[in-house]
Amino acid sequence: MQQQQQQAKTPPPQPQTNPTRGSLPAGFKPTTPPPAPKPSPNRGSMPKGWTPS
C-alpha cells in the first residue's frame, strides 16, 4: 500500500500569477463571500458616520 502512495501522480503546480495569492490558480474564487460591511458591536445601532460628541 505504501508503494502505491509513492507512485500517486501529483498534479503540476499552478502558475503563480500573483505572489500574494500563493499557489492558487488565477481563476480561483474563495467559497466564502467577502464579509459584508457591518457596524462594530461596540457602536450598537448607531449610524456608520456617527461619532461621539
Automatic annotation (TrEMBL):
What residue spans carry the region label Disordered? 1-53
Comp. bias intervals (Pro residues):
31-40
Q: Which domain of life is it from?
A: Archaea
* Chain intervals with Low complexity compositional bias: 17-30
Q: What is this protein called?
A: Uncharacterized protein
In its UniProt entry, the species of origin is given as Candidatus Nitrosotenuis uzonensis
